[in-house]
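Entry 14. Structure prediction run on the chain below.
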Amino acid sequence: MLRELISRFNRSLTKSVVSFRKSYHAPIKVWFEPDRLTGSLPASNENISAMGETKDLSRTGVAFLMSSIRIKEKYLVGQDRILNAELDLPSGKVRMQLLGKRYERVGKHISIEKFLIGAQIVKMTADNREAYEQFLKYAGRRKKGAGSLGLEID
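Output returned:
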């Protein structure tokens, strides 16, 4: 009886602490923030990018599938490396900066192997934030149509 009570408390606490996740599959483009450690001007890293697909979205993070865990020699997760991301949502493209927190290999065979990456949203412009949160709030809901005018003309 006590274990059941503690279990219910933990579930309710977890629901209030963790952001609601919306399962949604959309194209995502990921590239690295330019390194600022060198003395010369860095070239844009946007042309060195990778494409993937989102798995779920929340106010605080994004989970997405990629065919590789790295782009060239740089890993997508680890070393507090900032990723630039562009989501292709029905309302338009939304850009954000992400920090990869974890990854997991998914797929049973090497030919279909992918990596599920969990990333925290660290920065967005106000316009992108508004568009993203509007999508999270209203996506998947059907708008009630105005219906017919009911003129009954035959």
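Confidence is low (pLDDT under 50) at residues 143-154.
Filed with the rest of this week's runs.
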